[in-house]
Amino acid sequence: KQWYQRRVRGGWCEKKYVVYNHYNKKTNPDDDQVFPDVESAKVQCDNDPGCKGVGQDKKPYKKNLHDRGYTYRNTIYLLNEDDINRGPKKYYRFNSYLKDEC
Fold first, then answer.
1. 20-45 confidence digits (pLDDT tens)
2. CB-based burial of residue 53 (10 Å sphere; 0-12 exposed, 13-18 middle, 19+ buried)?
């Protein structure tokens, strides 16, 4: 049995507690690479042939690391083929959504 839960919905495979790659604010300073929710990230990913999935870190996203508040409740970002090829890792703080595969 696999150590993560997976569920298919509308062509997307949801993998709970799985991380392929985390979002690094220091190496990805553009806020246009982070999304307010999983659904808007999926729409963007569907329109991008290089996108293979969506990553969700349950840690809040802050536009400025020194702000007290947060911009988005979770840090949601796109995954490319290199991210997916690194292989899944189990981590409670993450969920991943893969496009067209499970």
1. 988 766 656 566 689 999 999 999 99
2. buried
